[in-house]
Amino acid sequence: MSKPVARAPQRRNARSNRARILDTARQELGRNPDITMEELARAAGVVRRTLFGHFPGRDALLAALADEASAALREAAEDAVGLDEPAERALARLFLAMWPVGDRYRMLLALARRHLGAERVTGILAPVRDAATDIVERGQREGVFHSHLPPVALSAGLEALMVALLESVNDGVLDDDVVPLVVATLIAAGVPEKRASDVVVDVSSVINAKPGFGDGT
What we know:
Largest sheet: none
DNA-binding region: 36-55
Order of helices and strands: HHHHHHHHHH
Domain HTH tetR-type: 15-73
Structural class: mainly alpha
CATH class of the largest domain: Mainly Alpha
Pfam family, one: TetR_N
Number of domains: 2
CATH architecture of the largest domain: Orthogonal Bundle
Helix content: over 70%
Low-confidence stretches: 213-217
Organism: Streptomyces diastatochromogenes
Keywords: DNA-binding
Distance between the termini: 35 Å
Number of helices: 10
């Protein structure tokens, strides 16, 4: 009867180690896509045998990261576009929802060409990109976003801006305060500064009132 009890802490430790490895890998691979498995083990505070026990090789680790990122990003996109609301609020909601999982986004972009393959990364990011493009197109029809670019082009530009802002936060150039960063993105989309600030502050307060926001899960 004692054996199952003894195994329970081992299973919890294994889950904790796996989560720590994935969390470290997201951050480190976003900064350096060529980091070795040995370097990742040291950064995660585990021995090589523990790392390879969970992920037999680099491909297995990348596949696990891709699956996790796909689920997190899809959930963020679904949460952001499930409401019937004006386009500027929908876009603010999308980028606010994306911020807690921004490390996944940055990591996927860093790994796209040489490791995961651009086609797979494009597929993983498709729900978020499609949601952003749909919102931008609606906002252009409503007259709240710039219309001098096609929706897909403006959406891509806003995505690039958010990635650059995320990198600036990671590099210590900007504070990790998502509200002014999303305000800057709405301004870039064509929303007047005061209106952009009011929208983002209001949407942020609604999101923050929901359990689980900001935990990155």
